[in-house]
Automatic annotation (TrEMBL):
It comes from Cyprinus carpio carpio. This is 3-ketoacyl-[acyl-carrier-protein] reductase beta subunit. Keywords: Fatty acid biosynthesis, Fatty acid metabolism, Lipid biosynthesis, Lipid metabolism, Oxidoreductase. PROSITE patterns: ADH_SHORT (PS00061). InterPro entries: KR_dom, NAD(P)-bd_dom_sf, Sc_DH/Rdtase_CS, SDR_fam. Pathway: Lipid metabolism; fatty acid biosynthesis. The lineage of its organism: Eukaryota, Metazoa, Chordata, Craniata, Vertebrata. Residues 46-227 form the Ketoreductase domain. Belongs to the short-chain dehydrogenases/reductases (SDR) family. It comes from the Eukaryota. GO terms for biological process: fatty acid biosynthetic process. GO terms for molecular function: oxidoreductase activity, acting on the CH-OH group of donors, NAD or NADP as acceptor; quinone binding.
Length: 280
């Protein structure tokens, strides 16, 4: 019987490859580690690009990645806000850029700047998102398009831009979805659709690029203490959460970091919602 490693496969890019010969192959573990003085394994610094990185969950992700020693590029629609956030991060050489992810030319320009200024992208986090909640019959077409273009198309554009940098070196992508993209919610048809689409996109892309040492996962937060949830009636909302409280952006950031740094996880959805999906 032929061993698995003797078979050849063709990936989505037309490249031929063989299955890994051993479980510790670099095919499985594209990330490099070094060892500290006390012999602890430490992940080497990578370039992390965070869209929507100046506020809420994205800001918490940027802070955590910088604390881990990674160089962070913070992207926001507001250049000044992005630069202020980048300057506040621990470490050096962080960068703040403006980008509207719903505009293809903005995304392309951002990655051109990143390539020239910073080098190869190792991590991508898509935290940019908007909501225009309303019953479908009351939703305006322009609001529907804005939500879909930002939350779904925007992540597609940024992933495509990052892949061009990651193909030769590997990398990891985490998209930020939502619990309502999994369970649905009245008054959030368009927002739910954009996040549900992001789940399908994440799983499909994970299959396309796995052979290139690129992993793609999705974090689906519940009710997190951000500007997006500021207008909710807290007491009513908390009653629906089994753990009895809103989550903090830092708690979602730790889930994002876990997926970025886990070399054998791809195509997965991780709910960070205090059990909210159990009540929906």
């Amino acid at each position: 019987m032929r061993s698995l490693s003797s078979y050849k496969f063709t990936d989505a890019f037309g490249s031929t490859y063989r299955a890994p010969r051993a479980v510790h192959s670099t095919w499985r573990h594209p990330f490099k580690f070094t060892f500290s003085d006390n012999n602890e394994r430490v992940m080497m610094s990578r370039l992390a690009v965070v869209f929507g990185g100046s506020r809420g969950i994205g800001r918490a992700v940027s802070q955590l990645l910088a604390q881990r020693g990674h160089r962070v590029v913070v992207l926001s629609r507001n250049k000044e806000t992005a630069q202020v956030t980048a300057a506040s991060l621990p470490g050096e050489k962080h960068l703040g850029l403006s980008c509207d992810v719903s505009k293809e030319e903005d995304v392309q320009r951002a990655f051109e700047t990143i390539s020239k200024t910073c080098g190869t992208v190792g991590y991508l986090v898509n935290a940019a998102g908007i909501n225009r909640d309303a019953l479908l019959l009351r939703s305006k077409s322009e609001d529907m398009l804005s939500v879909l273009h930002t939350n779904l198309l925007g992540s597609m554009l940024t992933c495509r831009g990052a892949l061009r940098s990651m193909l030769s070196h590997g990398g990891a992508i985490v998209n930020i979805g939502s619990v309502v993209g999994v369970k649905g919610n009245s008054g959030q048809c368009v927002y739910s659709a954009s996040k549900a689409g992001l789940e399908g996109f994440t799983r499909s892309l994970a299959k396309e690029v796995a052979t290139r040492n690129i992993r793609v996962n999705l974090v689906a937060p519940g009710l997190i203490r951000t500007d997006m949830t500021a207008g909710l009636e807290k007491e009513d909302a908390v009653r629906r959460i089994p753990l009895g409280c809103f989550g903090e952006p830092a708690e979602v950031a730790h889930a994002v970091l876990f997926l970025l740094e886990s070399p054998y996880i791809t195509g997965q959805l991780l709910l960070v919602d205090g059990g909210l999906q159990l009540a929906l």
